[in-house]
Amino acid sequence: MNIVVQNIERADAEIVAGLAECGVATVHEAQGRIGLLASYMRPIYAGARVAASAVTVSVAPCDNWMIHVAVEQMKAGDIMVVAPTSPSDAGYFGDLLAESVRARGGVGLVIDAGVRDVRDLTEMGFPVWSKAVCAQGTVKETLGSVNVPVVCAGALVNPGDVIVADDDGVCAVARADAAEVLKKARARVANEDDKRKRLAAGELGLDIYNMRQRLAEKGLKYV
Fold first, then answer.
1. pTM, whole model, 2 decimals?
2. Alpha carbons 128 and 79: distance in angstroms, whole number
C-alpha cells in the first residue's frame, strides 16, 4: 500500500533538545546499545549535531518522488529519514530539496542512499547523514510511502521517533521511550564528568573501574 500518514505524534521538544546535548554515543549506551544505524552512515561535514523527530520516507531505488511528497508533511524540528526499498547509492537529495525542507522547518536528513550538491549543503549548514555521495540523479516514477515504519541502515525507525545524529553516527530512540532514555543519558553524562576529573588527576582506569581483580582472575601476570 502506498500511503501518506499526515498526523503523527512527536516527542516533547525539550526532551528532543536534551537528547541532542547528550550525543549519539551516550544515548546509544543509555538505551541499552540499541537503535544505532550502520556505521557507514556518515555526516557530509564535520561538527553537525542534531536531534529531531523523524518523518520517515520509503522510496524506490533511484527514485526521489516520495521525498518531494514528504516535504509537505514536515514541521518545525523534524528530520527526514529516507530508506530505499532496495539498495541504491544514487543522489536522491541536493541543495534545492534542502531549501524546501528548511522552509518547512526541517533540520536535516538521514538517508540510506546518496546525496549530492555537498558543497552547497555544507555552505547552507544543512546537515545530512548518508551512505554515499553520488552525482547520479533520480527519476520520479514509483510510489512509496510517508510516515510509515522503515528500516534505515539496519535500524527500525517509526514516524515520530527521535533521531540523534552527530560526528559519531546516527541513533534512533523510540518516541515512547525518549523521556526515560534522556534521564539515563543525563545520568551517564554526570558519571562521565566525575570520571573525567579523576582521570585528569592521574587516577587510572584500572582502579576506577575495579579491573585489577578480574584481570588477575583471567590470569594476567606482572613480571
1. 0.94
2. 10
Residue 142 contacts residue 65 (beta carbons within 8 Å): yes
- Cα angle 174-150-3, degrees, rounded to a multiple of 5: 115
- Residue 95: its pLDDT value, please? 98
Angle in degrees, CA 13, 148, 99, rounded to 5: 60
181 residue type, one letter: V
Residue appearing with cell numbers 516520495: 66
The pLDDT, as a whole number, for residue 19 is 98
Contacts of 175 (CB under 8 A, 6+ apart): 9, 10, 11, 53, 158, 160, 161, 162
DSSP per-residue string spanning 98-143: HHHHHHTT---EEEEEEE--HHHHHHHT--EEEEEE-----B----
For the chain of 223 residues, list the mean pLDDT of each consecutive stretch of 10: 96 98 98 98 98 98 98 98 98 98 98 98 98 98 98 98 98 98 97 93 96 96 96
Q: What is the pLDDT of residue 1?
A: 84
C-alpha to C-alpha distance for 114 and 102, rounded to whole angstroms: 19
Integer Cα distance of 2 and 30 in angstroms? 35
- Among residues 63, 61, 72, which one has the least CA distance to residue 4? 72
